[in-house]
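Quick check before the chapter quiz. The format below is the same one you will see on the exam, so make sure you can read both the input and the output lines.
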Amino acid sequence: MRLVAGLGNPGRKYARTRHNIGFLCLEAFASKKGLAFKHQKKIKGSIARHKDTLLLKPTTYMNLSGESVKAALDYYRIPLTELVVIHDDLDLGVGRLRLREKGGTGGHKGLSSILAHLGEDTFKRIRFGIGDSGRLDASDYVLSRFVEEEGDTVIESIREVTEIIEALADDEDFTTLMNRHNVRANEHDENDD
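Here is the expected output.
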């Protein structure tokens, strides 16, 4: 059993914001597979299941994501080695993906909360680029919506994340996925130069 947690904020106000890209990826996968999320009060989140993979959307708000992730890991007895977190990343261009086996928080409040609750940063991540805030305050920027010209890139990257989730559900090794997708991302970056 593994847990794929997509980070975001609950409620319509935040539904399509950059900070909710983790939710958007899980919702796209669930829609593709005909899955429904069910709220589970005991884990402070909504869960859907595909094969031996649980999809979690914490309903704690971003800054308290760790409460839900920890509760889900404990309740379902999932080891930390089987946790994958999908989150937005200001340091990557819009739609750029980077898979990592561990790492710091980069100032991301959701990751900071998870780290605080788990006590270690060895969980896997799918970093989804939302671009640089430029002149906007970072907290305002992450709660803004993608603009029209970013749409195709974001949709294509969400589709790629759904493929990664499917591969994980089929027991493909995360390191193999990381090597394949990060190489693809690097080739894409070189073609942009």
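If your answer matched, good. The chain has one domain: 2-192.
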